[in-house]
């Protein structure tokens, strides 16, 4: 049987449970994933005087062939995108500005430094998202930025953040779809603080300055990302979950949850429904923490599937901005993007193929036996046959065929980068 024939057989299995599979594939095609550019070069960026990665995050490994300049990064992204079904968005950081060899301070970045990205995105019908880069910098070297005791340092990062939101607005205008500008800072302390209040108060005031400047929400949306700890900031994080949750709800910005930014037994899947009751939109950084916020490539594990289920069965595909945030430097970077993004889409497909109404009803009736029994049976339903067909009709390789393409690209392109 070919892929189409297998699809027809598998489809019948799902239709027995009232799942309209053709409709599912149409809906899946509408979902945009925000694919982070920084997997392509280990969060290095293109600044003329490139700084070492800092802020308590780390990309480990030295797999050869990382992108060294904008042309290479876009070429690599093109390769990855040719292996991922659907039309998506690319998520940029301020350090990916192109300044033509000129040293430009981060508080002086302008839309024009991103015009090549915009043109590239336009030609491909992609959206763009954005992030101020508030780490890997002289003015962040003691681990404090927007909460720093020194007003000059805070003001520098305030100006950078405002400049970044304007770039987000420019992206939205140019590309005809809103850009999400997400703010994350590394601020925290390695050891037990003697004052937890004052840095948080300063962060609150800095953020108020930043968001006092209005951008058009048709073009730019703002989010703030919390964290629990980072390397070198083990004892205290200024921008904690409670901090940003309260800030977001009072200031009309979107809360962003990174799946690696919580305690090990806490799961983001359980938080989504609670957040959806109080926010119009929420945002995610889907990542895979292994023992810490290690940013491993996401695999199709139970938690990823659970996150997808919470988005799909609560009818929240339009309310959750799904961004990815992993960076593994120990494997082929194009493969990393491809594996992770395909997994996110597979998880959504799996959620859409689930008879969610039936399962909800069983719960309401208190029939927990059947709820568990069916959930377990659906795990071995032939989703792979639906997925392969979805890849085929979207002109990307089905099954593992994409691996050969990455290998060819590695031989032809990556191996030449020394
Ligand atoms: C760090 C945050 C943040 C970064 C990116 C590069 O822990 O997750 O989102 O990973 O901005
Ligand atoms: Zn993140």
Automatic annotation (TrEMBL):
Keyword entries, A-Z: Cytoplasm, Isomerase, Manganese, Metal-binding, Rhamnose metabolism
Main location (coarse class): cytoplasm
Pathway this chain belongs to: Carbohydrate degradation; L-rhamnose degradation; glycerone phosphate from L-rhamnose: step 1/3
SUPFAM superfamilies xrefs: Xylose isomerase-like (SSF51658)
Record's catalysed reaction(s): L-rhamnopyranose = L-rhamnulose
Sequence similarity: Belongs to the rhamnose isomerase family.
Role summary: Catalyzes the interconversion of L-rhamnose and L-rhamnulose.
Protein name: L-rhamnose isomerase
Species this chain originates from: Clostridium acidisoli DSM 12555
